[in-house]
Amino acid sequence: MLLEFNFMKLLNLSLALMVAGGSLSACAKSPASIAPVSMAGSYDNLSCKKARPMLEQERATLSALETQQKRAQTGDAIGVFLVLVPVSSLTGADREGAIATSKGKILALEARVQECA
Fold it and tell me: Structural domain of residue 70, as residue ranges?
């Protein structure tokens, strides 16, 4: 009887760890760990006069997206801790795609602005 009880405890613990591990893999990534989308050459035909303000605006956009992503990360950590579910995957708060796009735009705009100098 004691052996059966310990086995059930071990089985429940193993199941909980597998669920937690699966949930953690779906958590929102850190903004710093998100790779940019390649947009090389996308702004080559843009005038220098338009490229500079677009670059500044995109930097501000990225900053706002990173703040949102950090909130999603925190929400996921709390959600996984309390209910084993990454909240951002359910609510759509994860901004990974938008951050990758914004980083790509910034790299392409920076390349364009450097050509203007």
Answer: 2-28+44-116
C-alpha 67/C-alpha 56 separation (Å) is: 17
Task: Answer yes or no: are the C-beta atoms of 52 and 113 closer than 8 Å.
Answer: yes
Four-point Cα dihedral 31, 83, 18, 11, nearest 10:
160
Q: What is the mean pLDDT of the chain?
A: 80
Integer Rg of the chain from CA: 22
Residue 36 belongs to a domain: no
Find the helix packing angle between 2-25 and 48-83, rounded to 10°.
170
At 62-113, the pLDDT tens digits run: 999 999 988 888 887 777 767 776 667 666 677 889 999 999 999 999 999 9
